Amino acid sequence: MFESYDQDIGMLTNKISKKLIYYVNSNLEKFNLTTEQWVVLLNLSKQNKISQKLLAKLSGKDQSTLTRILDILERKNFIERHPSKEDRRSFEIHITETGLNITEQVIPFLDELFNNLLEDISYEKLKIYNEVLLKIDNNINKLQ
């Protein structure tokens, strides 16, 4: 069935992932966001006023990458950093009104975009696809 798992699964997954990120990024430009920034902003919209450490974990980012993203989001007035009351060495990250407004615009936009991307793919196939991706992720975590 498959010539090679590396070529047929690994390379195809990588190719589609890059293509998807490029496509979503090009569509997010109108909101002055990238996919990397969007992940952070979306997590903050769901759980505001959290530590940078927790935000990094929720967003799947290392600390240095998250710091760069937060610098950009702060310049765009989407977030603010406030010194933590518990630990003066750390900051709580707050989403601003501007950040909330942009989030409220991006969520339905991306829903529509993904509805178009997933056109003619049944719910059952998408469920299987999601289960397979989660299983691969779990296997990677076990191997690390």
TrEMBL record:
Under PANTHER family, the record lists: TRANSCRIPTIONAL REGULATOR SLYA, TRANSCRIPTIONAL REGULATOR, MARR FAMILY
What SMART domains does UniProt report for this protein, alphabetically?
A: HTH_MARR
Q: Which UniProt keywords apply?
A: DNA-binding, Transcription, Transcription regulation
Which GO terms fall under molecular function for this chain's record? DNA binding; DNA-binding transcription factor activity
What organism does this protein naturally occur in?
A: Clostridium saccharobutylicum DSM 13864
Q: Which GO terms describe its biological process?
A: response to stress
Domain named HTH marR-type is located at 6-138
Q: Which SUPFAM superfamilies match?
A: Winged helix' DNA-binding domain
> What is the recorded name of this protein?
Transcriptional regulator, MarR family
